[in-house]
Amino acid sequence: xxxxxxxxxxxxxxxxxxxxxxxxxxxxxxxxxxxxxxxxxxxxxxxxxxxxxxxxxxxxxxxxxxxxxxxxxxxxxxxxxxxxxxxxxxxxxxxxxxxxxxxxxxxxxxxxxxxxxxxxxxxxxxxxxxxxxxxxxxxxxxxxxxxxxxxxxxxxxxxxxxxxxxxxxxxxxxxxxxxxxxxxxxxxxxxxxxxxxxxxxxxxxxxxxxxxxxxxxxxxxxxxxxxxxxxxxxxxxxxxxxxxxxxxxxxxxxxxxxxxxxxxxxxxxxxxxxxxxxxxxxxxxxxxxxxxxxxxxxxxxxxxxxxxxxxxxxxxxxxxx
Length: 321
Description:
The chain is mostly helical.
């Protein structure tokens, strides 16, 4: 008798487990046939802890994999009725796949989920680009960060150990900067710069992010580092001169202006800046020499100097009145 009761209990337990797995299969079939509202309703019941029947399906990796599939289908759907089912379907997709991998202690689902994570990366890239173009920079940043998160998952990373996606890292920096999240912009630009992405331009963007957050000294330190790596880049030198002039460190500004002129002797703006610095220091004869050199490089520059002097006189006169 006891044996019969035990067998019955075992049968009911097994049938209950199969019933819940059947729910997951049903959700998968509904997703495959495009009935996304019904698929979502079914899979959410299978992970609902308040549903006593879900006790068997909640710890099953397949449940979460199917949930990820359904939310990705919602993102890909062209039907507005289905698109309204989730505000951020790709985030739920990623969370679901990660949950499936966490529960997959027997490593049965890794290969299929790895393929799906690759497809998810494509959707996140499209979402990031669309969000950036729509000036939703925070959403773009989040999507780029989720791509980086996927690339750091063990089963994905194992295919390309040591690989670094500098394009996505740099784009995350662009999105963060546009979102006025300058700390993250500096972080991602810095990572891209570490790998030589976009050369001196990336360093200039880091320096600019520091400036935008009001950290002039931080900007200067980055430019000094950039100058060590890219001493021939005029943009780096020009930015350094500008900051030194702003900080009233004329000796340092003059030193880097001399370097800039040495590298690009035909750049008339360097001579003009040098002349302005000499004027600030009361070195009139040196200032005249710099302006003369500017005119030698570009004969039309004399007109610009006259305009600049007139502007200065008018500004002084306006202040006096």
